Amino acid sequence: MNLRSIAPALAAALVVAACGGNGEPAPAPTGVAATVGDGIVTVSWNDDPGVQYWLFVSANSGLTTENFNQFPDTRVLRNARSPTSLCGYPNGRTQYFTLNGRIDGGPGGPGSPTLAATPRAAGASWNAGAALAADLAGVGYAPLTTCTATALPSGIFVAVGPNAAIFSSTDGRNFTARSAPAGFAADLNAVAAYTASLNNPSAPNSKIVAVGAGASALVSSDGVTWTVGSAYNAGSPAWRAITVYGATFIAVGDAGAIATTTDGLTWTARTSNTSADLTGIACSSTHCIAVGAGGAYVVSTDAGATWTASTIAGAPALRKIGYGNFNNNEGSTSVAINTFVAVGDGGVIARSTDAGATWTTATVAGAGNFAGIGYTTRFVALDTAGNAFASVDGQSWSALSVTGITGVRALTGTGFGYVAVGAGGVNASAF
pTM of the entire structure? Predict the structure, then answer.
């Protein structure tokens, strides 16, 4: 998380060293405030560029700038600037913050009052955006940077829909219409992205691929300018969902269609061993699972090259699937869950903790037909009416606040929040 963990002895040595300069202590920082996100706390203050700030963090409520070296979990960020983002903390566990300043390497001045903040899981509070001027069927996210001490995560959100509708956004709230290549007018159903050079925003080497009717595909590096990756073919089945495994894109669709590509331009058809319509796909580090009509599902362990097919007995049409690798909401440490959850009609969910070998099904109370599922540090699923539901393990579900939109068709999780889109250009976000 790009924070400097300082053992008590070293911390004390640093304090002594800091006192040896010719500078002077700075007044106690003012305007100190904290905002929380999913595993994130951002601390801000009235930053004087002539002051060198030290930010102290601990789970102990007694933390001060004088006693910080008494607490084994204390983290110290030297030369901090406002705002500073602190990442990777367990949700539900309160953290305490204080900071002081020094001028020209002098001793640290008086500390600010100790401030408490508690990270929380995303998805409980939603912001409905202004409706966009087209129906929307899919949404995806291309990460550019992860959370660092100087900035929150950043990336590109892309929403797509019928008649080659494309919109992009850098914040998941404000979208701008983009133009498809001349002559391309196919319906777009889904979008996924891969970034080869994460945390290199000047040259991220991102690849964004949108897929749709007639095995059509568009490709972009920035969500703004698009080229045709696969032309519409009336004789080919529609692709309904797409994901990324490593650097390989895997698209699935009608009549069991599956194809893979590494560049969005050259596609290889794969044998799915099912004729069921496939509408959702997700991958772990070892397995990819696609789901679809009548509870059908297919599993691959080789980046989508070969597939085995089966059916979840008694399951309805399964619309989407998500994968969760850890639960960061227990207030202490992360708990590995390694769970796939598929969502379907009638509020049904299907859960597997063994990569699709076995499944358990349940009906989420109060849910209608599910339209999407995403994962940050917990699962969040939306039904078409815009109702949101959450689960830390895919087994026990609770209702969240409504999203404020209806006609939901797709949802994406970003690692720090969610964006949903739907009919009539509706969109909503929760960070």
Answer: 0.91
Half-sphere exposure of 77 (CA within 13 A, CB side): 21
What is the three-class DSSP state of 69? helix
CA distance 137 to 130: 16
Q: Are 138 and 189 in contact (CB under 8 A)?
A: yes
DSSP-based three-state secondary structure for 234:
coil
* Residue written as token pair 């009336």: 234
14 DSSP 8-state letter: H
pLDDT string in tens for the chain (431-residue length): 333 333 444 444 444 334 445 799 999 999 999 999 999 999 999 999 999 999 999 999 999 999 999 999 999 999 999 999 999 899 999 999 999 999 999 999 999 999 999 999 999 999 999 999 999 999 999 999 998 877 889 999 999 999 999 999 999 999 999 999 999 999 999 999 999 999 998 999 999 999 999 999 999 999 999 999 999 999 999 999 999 999 999 999 999 999 999 999 999 999 999 999 999 999 999 999 999 999 999 999 999 999 999 999 999 999 999 999 988 887 666 788 999 999 999 999 999 999 999 999 999 999 999 999 999 999 999 999 999 999 999 999 999 989 999 999 999 999 899 999 999 999 999 99
Say if residues 167 and 177 touch (Cβ distance below 8 Å): yes
Phi, psi of 327 (to 5 degrees): -105, 115
What are the Cα distances from residue 81, in Å, to 58, 153, 186? 19, 17, 48
Does residue 345 sit in helix, strand or coil? helix
Asked whether the beta carbons of 223 and 235 are under 8 A apart, the reply is no
The two structure tokens encoding residue 46: 């009235």
Which amino acid does the sequence have at 211? V
| H or E stretch covering 10 | helix 8-18
